[in-house]
Design brief:
With about 230 residues, the chain is mainly beta. It is built from three helices and eleven strands. The longest helix is centred in the first third of the chain and has 12 residues, at about 5-15.
Length: about 230
């Protein structure tokens, strides 16, 4: 059961990411924050299955968007195998794409070995990553030391979510049917209902509802290819 990831998805939706993208006072030029803030901290439950993808509709207040997560390849990183994870946010102004070469959990800056960003209608550009020249903690970058630790719900003194299984149900996703477990969690003063299934790769989420926030699976599958 991937209950740990449900709480982490809530962090994604409740973060300033969706509120800031493309708005005045947000990141320059509408560029979203680093993917470590866009991608749910997937933790040990995440499995890099080549070609796996899941696409969601997401809403936070009046803002709506579509987010697609996909594992689009792998390559050697020294003695270990790294995987490319692509996140694609479909907004009224176009598609915002991040492509990350990862050695592990995407929420941990140290696991990002390469990072590319492609703005709507623009060309892909490589961005500095933690510890690289110009990147956080690297030569010429902010901090000049190791990147800060990522605080996770339920760790480092943070409050732990209280999950309860409500039941199970069959849900239709596009032309597919999945068996999902209904879970309910209380986290930081909010109540969240989520439906999860091991049939859904990446972080297992089928649907999530929380105050002023929703995230619902549109479709999923295999055979994903990189956008660039």
């Amino acid at each position: 059961m991937r209950t740990r990831n449900l709480c982490l998805v809530l962090v994604l939706l409740s973060s300033p990411v969706t509120a800031q993208m493309g708005r005045p006072g947000g990141p320059p030029g509408g560029q979203p924050p680093p993917p470590t803030q866009m991608v749910p901290p997937l933790g040990q439950d995440f499995v890099f299955e080549d070609g796996a993808w899941a696409e969601y509709t997401m809403a936070r207040g009046p803002m709506q968007m579509t987010m697609r997560f996909a594992v689009v390849g792998k390559e050697a990183c020294g003695k270990e195998t790294c995987h490319w994870l692509e996140t694609k946010a479909k907004l009224p102004g176009g598609e915002l794409i991040h492509k990350m070469l990862l050695s592990g959990d995407p929420s941990e800056p140290k696991n990002i070995k390469k990072l590319f960003f492609k703005p709507p209608g623009g060309t892909a550009m490589e961005l500095p990553v933690a510890g690289s020249p110009g990147g956080p903690g690297g030569p010429g970058g902010p901090g000049g030391g190791p990147p800060p630790a990522v605080t996770r719900p339920g760790t480092q003194g943070a409050p732990k979510p209280d999950f309860k299984e409500i039941g199970s149900t069959k849900m239709s996703i596009s032309t597919k049917e999945v068996e999902a477990k209904h879970m309910r969690a209380s986290f930081q003063g909010m109540t969240m209902d989520a439906w999860v299934s091991p049939q859904i790769k990446l972080f297992g989420l089928v649907k999530l509802t929380a105050p002023m926030m929703t995230m619902e699976l549109k479709d999923f599958g295999t055979g994903a290819k990189a956008s660039f």
